[in-house]
Write a structure and sequence with these properties.
This protein has about 100 residues and is α+β, with helices and mostly antiparallel strands. It has a domain of about 60 residues. It is about 15% helix and about 35% strand. It has two helices and eight strands. The strands form two sheets. Strands 1, 2, 3, 4, 7 and 8 form a six-stranded antiparallel beta sheet that branches. A two-stranded antiparallel ribbon has the order 5-6. β2 and β3 form a beta hairpin. The longest helix has 12 residues. It starts with 6 loop residues before the first strand and ends in a 9-residue tail after the last strand. The relative contact order is 0.22.
Length: about 100
Amino acid sequence: MGAGLIIFVLAVSGWCREPKENPICIIQTNMGNIEVEMFQNDAPQTVANFIGLAEGKKEFTDKKTGKKVKKPFYDGLIFHRVIKDFMLQGGCPLGKGSS
């Protein structure tokens, strides 16, 4: 399966729910949804950073324009590395795994 076939689309603003302990984020892809439990007690800064970027509340530098923006970071990104039955890797704004 080519990495370009899976679109990493994250709509966390409407797709995170708060269970009793950890938020659950839903990653929507063209191959189906993936539920990710966020372990905020173990990694509070990482969870806050991920959710802030996903919801568009955390500022970042857009790699394509070089400008500071606040928008959903993960929307439209691809999984640039896919190893069947093992892992998916995504989050690179250029889709190459280099940034």
